[in-house]
Design a protein that fits this description.
alpha+beta; 12% strand; three-stranded antiparallel sheet
Amino acid sequence: MSKFFKGFTLIELLVVITVIGLLSAMVLVGLSGVRARGRDTRRVADLRNLQNGLEIYFNKNNTYPSSLSDLGAQLGQLPQDPLNREPYTYYYGVSSDGLHYTLGALLEDEENSALDNDLDSDPYDGLTCSDPYYCIGL
């Protein structure tokens, strides 16, 4: 009586595991750029929301706040950067008369299309608004 074993050999299993590992590594490397673009999209959206909050603050007080924490005290919680670490934080500058402001964020993707339509200088707080900084203001 002979015994027949149905299954895979150790070599076959190792080859399959190696191929799956290589494919997974390639997918993860490809997704890192997508994740960075997603975080940049959130940063731009957060700045637009802050801009709306600044306009509400201005309508109530006839001046822009001296800091973002002043805005947060009136409107509630301020948005947090997706990475929540330096240097990816939000920047705010206001003119001495309180009638003009600039908001900025450092983007991870230096080729982001949002950089084509932003401010390239900030006379109020000395922020570096050239690429890859995304800046908006009034």
